[in-house]
Here is the input.
Amino acid sequence: MDVTAYRDEHHRIMKRAAELLSACERIDGSAALDEAKKAVKRLDGVLRVHLQREDDELYGWLADSEDAEVRATAAQAMEDMGGLAQAWAGFVDQCAKAEFPQDIPRLSSTCHTLLSALTHRVRWENEVLYPMAEALRDKPSGN
Here is the structure.
């Protein structure tokens, strides 16, 4: 499986995530909250589709591998990181309803937690999962 598009999406996702983190750290008024909400929408525009495609296509392809180690790695990844899309969707909904100042501490805390989980997932996929997919793709008897 070619993971080039996933890698390219990771670059866009991490750029948007950095913008969101910066916006969440500056929420000191209603205008700043509006800017954070816009940053959430920009990240959501690339993240939701990416996670869905990755979970359905890439993780599914690896889970169907003939290689037991690949299947086990895919299963562990799905178990460890499979809830990120649902947690992100919940956060997007919370942001849409957030008001200043009462929702800022919760919003900021959740933002940091989710972006940390996202960063972990992106790093792990880039360093472990994508090379595994490329090696599997390049095997003569591959999947």
In short: The chain is about 85% helix and 0% strand. The radius of gyration is 17 Å. The CA atoms of residues 15 and 140 lie 36 Å apart.
